[in-house]
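SEVERITY: medium
COMPONENT: batch folding queue
REPORTER: lab tech (J.R.)

DESCRIPTION
The queue accepted two submissions in a row. Attaching both inputs and their returned structure tokens so the on-call engineer can compare them side by side.

ATTACHMENT 1
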Amino acid sequence: MMTTNQPKSIPTDTPFDFGEHRFYFGKEIVELSDSTSLRNDFKALHRKMNEDGYLFIRGFHPRQDVEAAAHWTLKSIAERGGIKQDSPIKDGIINEANRTFSFFRQTEVAHAKPILDVVDSQRTMQFYEEFLGGPVITFDKRWLRCMAKGGHNHFHYDSVYVGRGTQNRYTMWSALTDIDLENGPLVICLGSHQHNHLKSTYGATDMDRDLTDAVFSTDPREMVEKFGFTLATAHFQPGDVIIFGLYMMHSSAPNRSDRYRISIDTRYQLASDEKDDRFFFREDGTWLGNFYNKDVTYKPMSKLRQEWGLE
């Protein structure tokens, strides 16, 4: 049985501080639409994905597996001196150095059994096989992030980073810890998957091929006021996931708490579809990844946006 978490709905007018900006629920920001009840209705999930551009499924991963993955990750942080002295590892309290840990290329952490038991589990792979209609593969690179206070990402489409090969590829962002509105939750821009101008300009770039900035915006206020998007987020609990395609504009708010915010991004596609070879193991057990061009200058997004008529 799937573990289903049911936190209270976020009340209208609840403030949400996103960096220097404050938004209020029910106005510029709303709670994610919950698809948990559709978990085994794949026709309904496809309709939901086509319409909304994302699926938000609570308790997708079994709670005990996620807690084991979180504990493994926090233990790895503690071994690197990141946990507050004399505090329990399980509490994930950030020490004075306030260091963010991204275990992207540290396979001894990101590919350890407790992590893969979540993102490569039989139940996870079976879900994507049914959703995509055939045998699936997932990138060898896993984006295991442990955000310290102030740690966050900026608004982007995944297509710019991981868009080579098939377009029928999905990101799954999994919460490994309790991530409330203070802890830096993932935030998406509703309707951005249907913004044809953005998709055909910014969304058509490849940061490594075109040597272009990958971040579209660092300003959540302009995403609302200039581009007309409504923001959406939730209070995520361990095991909750949000799934979206290559063209969903998303970010994460800065972590304003004193505990690590731990999540992992994984990508899934049909095994028969063309891969993005930057993110699969080579013979030496490494992958190429992004930013492999050395000593180059990336064209700034401000100039690109002018060229695209997006200023």
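ATTACHMENT 2
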Amino acid sequence: MMRKILITGASGKLGKSVVKFLAEKIYAKNIAVLLRDKHEELIKQYKSKNFDVRVADYDNLASLKLAFHDIQVLYFVSGNDIENRLPQHKHVVEAAKSAGIKNIIYTSTVRKDDSKTAPLATVVGSHKQTEEWIKASGITYTILKHNLYSEVIKMFIGDKEQLLKSKTIYLPTGLGSVAFAPRNDFAEAAVNILLNLTNYENEILEFNGSEKLNFVDIAATISKIVKVPIEYISLTNSQFVTKMTELDMPVSIIGMLSAFSLGIANEEFDQQSNDLETVLKRKTQPIYEYLEEVYK
């Protein structure tokens, strides 16, 4: 009998992508999707395709325990509320243990610096603690340490119109490289694991893209695509904050971009493992191809 798999974060882009790939391999009735808002239009869409819809909130332990009933495998997408992520994740692990879930696949992050003074200490700390809770739970686990999505490049540097106007990428990333991979590659790999769990029991995998690029490389690549020279200028963090403030960027966004940029400069995402290629049985989407889709 097929074990029932629950995909959390099924209203988010990663969760939706995992559901899509998984539904191409197994019957929808064996896939449960977790949504937070019971009034979501997405609930109707999922139900119309015969998915088992569960409604719960990471903030509400009781709702999670109900939602996890009769689930054997949990694909646990980390929460995006950084400030409240620790108690939320504790609820998920506690509910999973209470419900008797057999396997947890958790989306974590790659990292080199676990210290409290690291640029991404808040982000990394919550992932590290969640991993420890999962291991201590006794539930069979697979931890997937994601590198940065290719999709964040646009978030970091702006769309085509913005780039053509400024002809410059301003970031405090230095010459730090990132092994970017597109969200769909992470999702496809997750599905390969979900369908072959015994091969990945109690393993920690590092999911990195097949190429490593810094923002000098990215500026050069986009220059070829748009046929206009795009310059990369590595600012100090204080210069970056000042520049973005002048452009009326929200403080929360500036803080997030600053932290991740400093993490890149600190080589947090300059990783070597080819686990993602191994699980996919192919290389990840070339960055040129992704950037061409976005900036052509």
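NOTES FROM REPORTER
The mean pLDDT is 96.
No errors were logged for either attachment.
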